[in-house]
């Protein structure tokens, strides 16, 4: 019970920090501040710097996440990292890195979609959006 409450609070804090990184006053004034804030979130919530997540493939990242959380918490961790990949990609000007992050976001959202017992219109819409962004639809 306490572990579940803790994890739900962690998720809530993560999405608040993500929102602040994207929409905060400081971030709006300087796009590089947004990138720095997002980069900090990788370390703060996933205990590895952004270079790790940029450089490794999705299966390595999935294994990394599995090692760091209980199986019942994995879907929420995947939701968090997929949203971070997506938001980070939106800020990137380098097409290769942007596409890399979008591909990773797409993989993890699709993984969630396949594994989840809950149908999510929001997730389906984001998957379709990312596919369009990548020219896959």
Q: Strand pairing plus helix content: what structural class?
A: mainly alpha
Largest sheet: none
Number of helices: 8
Number of discrete domains: 1
H/E topology pattern: HHHHHHHH
Q: Which regions contain 5 or more consecutive residues with pLDDT less than 50?
A: none
> Approximately how much helix is present in the residues?
over 70%
Cα Rg? 15 Å
What do you see in this structure?
The protein is mainly alpha-helical. The protein has one domain. The chain has helices at 2-23, 25-29, 31-46, 50-55, 58-68, 74-91, 95-115, 121-133.
Provide tags for this entry.
single chain; 137 residues; mainly alpha; 8 helices; 82% helix
């Amino acid at each position: 019970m306490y572990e579940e409450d803790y994890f739900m609070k962690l998720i809530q804090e993560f999405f608040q920090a993500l929102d602040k990184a994207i929409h905060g006053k400081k971030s709006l004034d300087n796009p590089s501040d947004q990138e720095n804030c997002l980069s900090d979130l990788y370390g703060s919530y996933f205990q590895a710097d952004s270079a790790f997540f940029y450089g490794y493939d999705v299966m390595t990242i999935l294994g990394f996440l599995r090692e760091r959380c209980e199986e019942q918490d994995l879907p929420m961790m995947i939701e968090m990292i997929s949203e971070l990949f997506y938001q980070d990609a939106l800020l990137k000007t380098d097409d290769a890195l942007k596409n890399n992050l979008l591909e990773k976001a797409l993989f993890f959202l699709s993984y969630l979609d396949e594994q989840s017992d809950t149908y999510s219109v929001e997730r389906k819409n984001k998957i379709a959006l990312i596919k369009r962004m990548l020219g896959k639809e």
